């Protein structure tokens, strides 16, 4: 079989490149021009709808977290019990930013307002007609879109407040407002579209202006009113806003009575979309011109590659064989250069796979997952030796060699990841610090070999009791272990800690001496929703202090540190 000549290798690729380029440019411009409007409209509506729904759900979760947390806060309970309005304002107002809410309404057990953070001078009236307050008075936590005395459109969560005797003494209602100019401005930045909020069919806040004036007070398109308010359905499509056509999305807010009493609007003027369409066509032309330039450059490199001496390519292959990982080549020719290129390609693929395996192992180890490793059997020769050495080194650095669970370094990696995630999502993060009771005496009495068996047994008990894949246990050092519990509130953390304590107490430790079969542990626990002001060191210290209390109160005990 005759090999292709160098001349054909230059002429044929050049012709193919230019023919394909001309076809692609023409097809791209014709298809893009006809599809751009519908594509932009569809993508924009879907993106805005999804973002708005996520915003509303996030607001619901923020109000719920604020109401439940503050209803359980001891200082707040005491202030409600004493009906101290000034103290209530002092306690609740600074937590707006912490929980991402705009206001609190605090009532007594009959729904009479004790304090409003958003209207401090307005109190002693009744809000028992609000459904979230009604539910809270009946002992339930609930969230609704509601209109109140001061705030017209918001998501509110009501939570019951109980005194130390378990008697209902009040309600904490936390809310996120939607009826302000600040809200619509923030949403406009998020959605890159205009935003309005309607109360019934009247705009009460908007980012749309005409002649420099806000169009607050104008009404919703009547044909859309029927769909959104009367039928309580979402609307997507065109909307006439004071003579200008918008591509719009309307989201009704349904209250506890099943009424669509308010509506969110987000939309973009059609003229803006047309301008974007024209910009896309212009970009297509620029892309075509860029393609021509790339073709010229590509032709230059093709010629250079074809005439490059075969000996240079052979030298490159020798360098890779010697372990030089900086060379990367992908040649599929059938001539002499192609033969050498395939050899290089095979070596490059082996190296690439090894590097990808190492990268994935590092990612998993950074999360504290010491089980993930490189599949050594996929490699051979020197590469297999290298892969095995890397696995050995990684296990030594991140795994406790006695117990087989993650070590302190692995825990530090996991804590950093979960701390940032909890701070971002505003979720609670719990930690358990576990210490074996009287372990020095145990070692002195039964010997260090029996002590090692105890450590291994307790490590197995702890890990066996953690059911979620996100829960993480590690050996802290010596006779101490630590457990990290993401998205876990104090009650759940105490429950898991007690399971571990009782599980260790019930465990049988292997060994010769029957008296060495039983050990106990003391556990300090702490739960926190991290904020910008929170400190990881203080987070661990609080749990450690709780452990000290458990030790001082007789050991074999769980103590939960309280938030200050």
Descriptive account of the structure:
- It is built from 16 helices and 17 strands.
- With about 575 residues, the protein is of the alpha+beta class.
- It folds into three domains: about 300 residues, 2-Layer Sandwich (Beta-Lactamase), CATH 3.30.450; about 70 residues; about 150 residues, Reverse transcriptase/Diguanylate cyclase domain (Alpha-Beta Plaits).
- The strands form four sheets. The protein has a five-stranded antiparallel β-sheet with strand order 2-1-5-4-3, with helices on both faces. It has a five-stranded antiparallel β-sheet with strand order 7-6-12-11-10. A five-stranded mixed β-sheet has the order 14-15-13-16-17, sandwiched between helices.
- Strand 14 and strand 15 form a beta hairpin.
What is this structure, in a nutshell?
The protein has helices at 6-71, 74-81, 85-92, 96-99, 131-137, 181-191, 222-230, 270-307, 310-321, 336-366, 381-398, 408-425, 439-446, 448-465, 490-506, 536-552, and strands at residues 103-108, 113-116, 142-146, 154-162, 168-177, 194-199, 202-206, 209-210, 213-214, 235-241, 244-254, 260-269, 429-436, 472-477, 480-486, 521-528, 558-561. It is α+β, with helices and mostly antiparallel strands and 564 residues long.
Tag the structure with descriptive keywords.
564 residues, alpha+beta, Beta-Lactamase, five-stranded antiparallel β-sheet, flat
What does the average pLDDT come to?
A: 83
Estimate the strand proportion: 15-25%
CATH H-level superfamily title of the largest domain: PAS domain
Q: Enter the CATH topology name of the largest domain.
A: Beta-Lactamase
The tally of domains stands at 3
CATH class of the largest domain: Alpha Beta
Distance between the first and last residues' Cα: 84 Å
Counted by DSSP, the helix tally is 16
Percent in helix: 40-55%
Give the overall form.
flat
DSSP E strands, number? 17
Largest sheet features: 5 strands, antiparallel
Low-confidence stretches: none
Could you tell me the radius of gyration in angstroms? 33 Å
Secondary-structure content class? alpha+beta
- Strand line-up across the major sheet: 2-1-5-4-3
* CATH architectural grouping of the largest domain: 2-Layer Sandwich
